[in-house]
Amino acid sequence: MRATRSCLRRCSPSWTSTLQRACGYVALTSLLRLVQSDHSAVQRHRPTVVECLREPDDSLSRRALELSLALVNSSNVRAMTQELQGFLESCPPDLQADCASGILLAAERFAPTKRWHIDTTLRVLMTAGTHVRDDAVANLTQLIGGAQELHAYSVRRLYSALAEDISQQPLVQVAAWCIGEYGDLLLEGSCEETEPLQVEEEEVLALLERVLQSHMSLPATRGYALTALMKLSTRLHGDNNRIRQVVSVYGSCLDVELQQRAVEYNTLFRKYDHMRAAILEKIPLVERGGSQADEEAKESKETAQLSEAAPVPTEPQASELLDLLDLLDGPSGDAQHPPPLDPTPGGALIHLLNLPCAPPPPAPIPNLKVFEREGLQLNLSFVRPPGTPTLLLITVTATNTSGGDVTHFICQAAVPKSFQLQLQAPSGDTVPAQGGLPTTQLLRILNPKKAPLRLKLRLTYNHFGQSVQEIFEVNNLPVETWQ
Length: 483
Hints:
It is a peripheral membrane protein. The chain is α+β, with helices and mostly antiparallel strands.
């Protein structure tokens, strides 16, 4: 340690000889090996290690970067991240990817607040957006989506950053997503955490059109911008003709995926305009998971619970093999003999293979009527697949005994945050009159904690020339749906 300390003292821009550079490299390597076993001892050399980031020698700066990232913890994350971001702005291109990824990982692990986490990630994207990991965009959108109190702040920061630079593709993608989701907050001008920003609807649309037309935009980036424009058609209060014209242009785009998206959006405007607001609603708040260790611990706990619930053989596998060999080759004095065979039909085969008896099939879950009005009735039927006890399949069946068709029928559902909900496409949007063919829709609900299920439904439809909207909760679901 004393020799290492001596070498580090000479780690300064005044190095001129190869021997001195080699000594510094050996010192940094030694500290990097020591940091796992004695983290506090290496922390004392943090200022010197950070100073070594400025060395012109690539091998030294790379080793200093590795050691600096290893020294980041919850108590020094602000100071170390500031030093690393300064290094990121001037480091060689071959080190930018490692530095950017390291800063993002440190921020994800030790972020003191969500706002600091968002600011740090945005600064990395603005500085070295082309060198970040592939999941940086998804991680930041998930972080912003789960921080409701920072939606207005985030959309303003991203709009300003996008207006200044549209070359950093990950930054442009996140900005387009955020503007599409929270564009209404951008126009309100009610965020107290940022400088006053007056933005007009035409300016927002012009900026997204600029992204679409830029030669620097990747196909994925154009997809984000096109979707943002489509979502703004339900967020803004002005005329949507400009958005419709832009979307229609990309219906003949050479990029197949972008063309398909534009064609679908055009169809939504022409044929399903009454459903556009519901389809393009804001995404629900996302619960951001914990650290990787927490996830692994959770998975281990679930695995242990499944192991406890599964039938455990009373004999080791080796004994089972010996017993089976005894049955085939004759008795042996050293081997343990199997228990007496069950005289019931099929019992001999079950004991021969030492398989548990199949449990009786679960009793069917009773159906539940949750809504009835003017002949329109909504019923829920339930199925829990035997192989996936945490999964519940709910079939929503709408029937109509009145004299008029129910048209433009839309059923939407919401569950508490501890559940995961997936809505399948309905069989149709019209419920025929006089007891015609019912309309069905499948809900897939994952309940990992097996908590009591609460379901919130919203129905919108037209009946007898009137537009109807009903919102209600279903709190009396059978206990078999979650126990």
